[in-house]
Design brief:
alpha+beta, Aspartate Aminotransferase, domain 2, Aspartate Aminotransferase, domain 1, 7-stranded mixed sheet, 17 strands, disordered N terminus, pyridoxal phosphate binding, Pyridoxal-dependent decarboxylase domain-containing protein 1
């Protein structure tokens, strides 16, 4: 255990673990307690007073543990915020709610202990859950309680007024009345003090009145219950203290590992709580609270409040900073009681309807709404992944909401204490968001330009994939591409794999990926996020030219392989035919070893040199007779040139591919601003000037009787022919401008 304690990053937790080991030793030394002392029940009033402001040292805490074991403390019950409440400690967060449901069933069905589920047949219980409840909660309760899924009633959230993540109280009352008319029994309502998604709080006060009216058990859970430890608590969260039960998770709130969750409940019948499993006489069950109790005693009231207050301050700091950032929308900014911040990227293009809006316009077509919704989700998902890598201490999570779509959530109460999040991390997070916004906006603006460029390029097909956050997706259509087929295309996959390799070798700022098409199995090239200086036309042209080169080279190699195979077969046939002709021409006697030699000595045979050469370019067998006659190897047909791009862009030194040329180069120095293209233009202009001067100097008008440049050129040519190569006289070279 000592070795494992050294691995704990927090020295405070390491020290607590060591002291916990000593406490366990004390418990083992006192195992000889009498049976009467073991039978005493430990009421809530036996706890030795409230938490100290600044916490206690471990010696005092261990003394309190010993006093509790022997029952030496005799303190009066202290006033508590949650009056007349009992506590149930459990490892699984949902286990406490399942026990509460059992308690509610036993309270409403008196014969349930004897008759079991037969009493539920005539009057089925109903458990009400909010539509914003955490996923899988209803299924878990049904599995634990053995109830069918129709016993669950999903209560919709507000659609007209208030937060869209709060339970609709009016609709809940209507559901309760309908269930009563059908002969069902409204059993339990689960309310949220901080929904699992966005941290919004239901109208718990109004829900409590409704539950008292119809005799329904009210259970509250959520992250906002942590704010009950603060001096300032919103009225909606404060109303949770009047509920029948609540579940608290202090482990993530305070950054304490391996501490149990707590379910507080109010009930006067110890027998029913024992049957429901909320109380136990086993010492092991009672010791579940020991790690949490030791941690709280060590932190004290000030330490506990400071951690919760720090988390709330982080959320307020981030929310106030995000309000000043363009294109970032915070969901329900007036939800001041929630320490959870949920935001998303929002962009509105000029001259069009709001793009990527949370609530689509009513006049928009369903296909348009779905495409923009998926596009927005892809961009926000990309933004979330980038922020999680850049600022890991923020603890951001990516979630998909039913109405808004993909959003980013910052819940410091669940992550700040564990990750050690500070205020500087919030400033860094906002700075990273601002640095990524130009990339998001430029990518949106270049998408339409990329789509038009692909549509105007032969051989390329634009693939509409709204789930891709980059510029777009493109597919090259080769000659044998079946456009109506959705199956895997091996030839196209080979071309796109080579295209991806060529594009990555260019070392541009763009990212390229290969993958199947959105609605088929054909390969495509996915192009990532872009900046404002991306040259889309050059990008599209490079993709088209490179893909065409790969296809033609591959086709040339395949054709050459087939031609060589056929040429070898034809050569074998012709060689066999030549051997047969030679046998007929020379006769059978010349094939006998001794006789053939004698005949060849008396009557030699003039051998006819016949051979074959294989022309790879023409793909045919040719005779070598011309080679033996002319003593020169034939060149054959000139091979075709390798296809190349029609556009060659001159780049400045250090300029990466697919970038627009830099402007404002006049302000630079003359030696650094003049490019290679400008040098060529100057040389061409200088050459033209020299040529013009030479023509003017040799014109007949200025030199009457002198030969023209053409005549001089012809005369010089004849003189060179007449003189021959052995002429040792110096030759004057003709100017370049006169050639």
């Amino acid at each position: 255990m000592d070795a494992s304690l050294e691995k704990i990053a927090d020295p405070t937790l390491a020290e607590m673990g060591k002291n916990l080991k000593e406490a366990m030793k004390m418990l083992e030394d006192n195992h000889r307690i009498t049976e009467e002392e073991n039978g005493k029940k430990l009421l809530s009033g036996d706890i030795p007073g409230p938490l100290q402001d600044s916490g206690q040292d471990m010696v005092s805490i261990l003394q309190l543990v010993q006093n509790l074991m022997h029952g030496d403390e005799d303190e009066e019950p202290q006033d508590a915020r949650y009056e007349n409440g009992c506590a149930y400690f459990h490892e699984e967060e949902r286990e406490g709610l399942a026990k509460i449901c059992r308690l509610a069933i036993h309270s409403h069905y008196e014969d349930f202990v004897v008759d079991g589920f037969n009493v539920l047949y005539n009057k089925k219980p109903v458990i009400y859950l909010s539509a914003a409840a955490r996923p899988g909660l209803g299924q878990y309760l049904c599995n634990q309680l053995g109830l069918p899924f129709p016993c669950l009633s999903r209560v919709p959230c507000n659609t007209m007024f208030g937060s869209q993540h709060q339970m609709d109280v009016a609709l809940l009352e209507k559901l309760i009345k309908d269930d009563i008319e059908r002969g069902k029994l409204p059993l339990l309502l689960v309310a949220n003090a901080g929904t699992a998604a966005v941290g919004h709080t239901d109208k718990i006060g109004r829900l409590k009145e409704l539950c008292e009216q119809y005799g329904i058990w009210l259970h509250v859970e959520g992250v906002n219950l942590a704010t009950l430890a603060l001096g300032y608590v919103s009225s909606s969260v404060l109303a949770a203290t009047k509920c029948d039960s609540m579940t608290l998770t202090p482990g993530p709130w305070l950054g304490l590992p391996a501490v149990p969750a707590v379910t507080l409940y109010k009930h006067d019948d110890p027998a029913l709580t024992l049957v429901a499993g909320l109380t136990s006489n086993k010492p092991a069950d009672k010791l579940r609270a020991l790690p949490l109790w030791l941690s709280l005693q060590y932190l004290g009231l000030d330490g506990t409040v400071d951690r919760i207050k720090h988390a709330c301050q982080l959320s307020q700091r981030l929310q106030e900073s995000l309000k000043k950032v363009d294109h970032i929308k915070i969901l329900v900014e007036d939800e001041l009681s929630s320490p959870v911040v949920v935001f998303r990227f929002l962009q509105e293009l000029p001259g069009s309807d709001p793009v990527l809006n949370a609530v689509p316009a009513p006049n928009m077509a369903p296909s348009t709404v779905s495409r923009e919704r998926h596009s927005c989700d892809a961009l926000n998902r990309w933004l979330g992944e980038q922020l999680k890598q850049l600022v890991p201490a923020s603890g951001l999570t990516i979630m998909d909401l039913e109405v808004e779509g993909v959003c980013l959530r910052f819940s410091p109460l669940m992550t700040a204490a564990v990750l050690g999040t500070r205020g500087e991390d919030m400033d860094q997070l906002v700075a990273c968001i601002q640095s990524q916004l130009p990339v998001l906006t430029c990518t949106l603006q270049l998408r339409e330009e990329f789509k038009k460029a692909v549509a105007g390029t032969a051989g390329l097909l634009y693939v509409d994939d709204p789930n891709w956050p980059g510029i777009g997706v493109v597919r090259y259509e080769h000659a044998n591409d079946d456009k109506n087929s959705l199956k895997l295309d091996p030839e196209g996959e080979k071309i796109h794999a080579g295209l991806l390799k060529k594009l990555n070798e260019l070392e541009s700022d763009l990212t390229f990926k290969i993958g199947p098409e959105y609605k088929s199995m054909k390969s495509c090239i996915y192009i990532g996020m872009a900046s404002d200086d991306t040259d889309v036309s050059e990008l599209v042209e490079t993709i088209a030219v490179t893909a065409r080169e790969i296809e033609e080279n591959s086709r040339l190699l395949e054709n050459m392989t087939e031609v060589v195979r056929k040429g070898i077969q034809e050569a074998q046939v012709q060689l066999q035919k030549a051997n047969e002709e030679r046998l007929l021409e020379e006769g059978v006697l010349r094939q006998i070893p001794v006789v053939g030699s004698v005949l060849n000595w008396f009557s030699p045979v003039q051998p006819l040199q016949k051979g074959r050469t294989f022309n790879l370019t023409a793909g045919s067998l040719e005779s070598t007779e011309h080679t033996y006659v002319s003593k020169v190897q034939g060149t054959g047909v000139t091979p075709p040139q390798t296809p190349s791009g029609t556009r060659t862009k001159q780049r400045l030194p250090g300029q990466k591919p697919f970038k627009r040329s830099l402007r404002g180069s006049d302000a630079l120095s003359e030696t650094s601003s003049v490019s290679h293209t400008e040098d060529l233009e100057k040389m061409e202009h200088l050459s033209s000037g020299l040529e013009q001067q030479a023509l003017e100097a040799n014109s007949p008008e200025q030199h009457p009787g002198a030969p023209t440049p053409q005549e001089a050129k012809q005369t010089g040519a004849f003189q060179n022919i007449a003189q021959g190569p052995e002429d040792d006289r110096p030759q004057v070279e003709e100017p370049e401008s006169l050639r």
